[in-house]
């Protein structure tokens, strides 16, 4: 059993709190991605799990062992860190075989392991080279192969695909995901690439300013972010946010977007948005709005600013009041810049967000239930 449990971890560098009271449990054999913008504390948190940097307070457990103060070699982990480079004086084969030699693995088995890891990373033809004879991307793949070959129960990876070109990266992320599932490794994987996180993770922990804002499955963080930052960080394009204003007439609450239009407030939210004139942020994804060529009930008339035909979709840039948003339509939808269209907001796709705290007003469970 190789569950990783981080409990109330704090790490400061002078005045900077890089990891701010973080707790996270990664279940046995689970693949959790730490995702967030540069400087949010991902690497610092991963280093604390690896033993490359100790926490100021809090605890790190692997299985039922408290590893908080153990050196990396005693934690039962393998890792790929930018700072943890491959050995320049060893050929690629010996680099990949390094951990296996330490384990005194019999030679035939060791060769097979090295071969398997090298093939996965497409470096089987470089086994006889020195790292200095390889490109940055190829060296990075050696580091990944070395970590995988060991088949430790816990694998920690910090941006392991960052030096690869786009096509290879696409291929590798699927292959890596398949292999790790096969090997049943518990993995923490750091990236700032949200597509990589969505495609690879069993769960994604979205970090900001040293804190985990949300840790859920890719579909949950995408569909029902608990925080405005999460919705705005995940997705291409990111979630749209509009200023809405609550108006109460005859006891019923409706939300106005700009000067026009109205969206009925769902019953469950009615008790939260009690004041007339209250401002609420309406979050909605580009693909969740319905675009129409003619007026219709509950549809807002909007001006199209830009049309981007992207093959599988048309991405429209649209002005609503003072807000600019993105709407995705079927490629056959007829539209031109500077023309008006009408859009509808399906109420089950709207995420209602508190303007001040940035938090979603309904918990994800309730959103799912009302959708
Ligand atoms: P990136 O994606 O750019 O690697 P990150 O999310 O991994 O960023 P960290 O490297 O963990 O972020 O850094 C978190 C914060 O801690 C940053 O403000 C960084 O400047 C600071 N920091 C990290 N390591 C040190 C250090 N050794 N000394 C001082 N400050 C540090």
Protein model, in words:
This protein has 371 residues and is an alpha+beta fold. The protein has 2 domains: 4-233, Rossmann fold, CATH 3.40.50; 240-370, OB fold (Dihydrolipoamide Acetyltransferase, E2P) (Beta Barrel). 26% of the residues lie in helices and 34% in strands. It has 10 helices and 20 strands. The chain has helices spanning 42-50, 92-102, 107-120, 136-150, 166-183, 194-200, 218-223, 228-233, 267-270, 364-370; strands at residues 4-13, 16-26, 31-35, 57-62, 65-66, 77-80, 154-158, 186-191, 203-208, 211-216, 240-249, 252-257, 260-264, 279-284, 290-292, 299-309, 314-320, 323-329, 340-344, 351-354. The strands form 4 sheets. Strands 6-7-8-3-9-10 form a 6-stranded mixed sheet, with helices on both faces. The chain has a 5-stranded antiparallel sheet with strand order 13-12-11-14-20. Strand 17 (314-320) and strand 18 form a beta hairpin. The longest helix is centred in the middle third of the chain and has 18 residues, at 166-183. It is elongated, with a radius of gyration of 25 Å. The two termini are 37 Å apart. The structure holds adenosine-5'-triphosphate (ATP). Adenosine-5'-triphosphate (ATP) is lined by residues 13, 16, 18, 36, 38-44, 192. Adenosine-5'-triphosphate (ATP) binds at residues 13, 16, 18, 36, 38-44, 192.
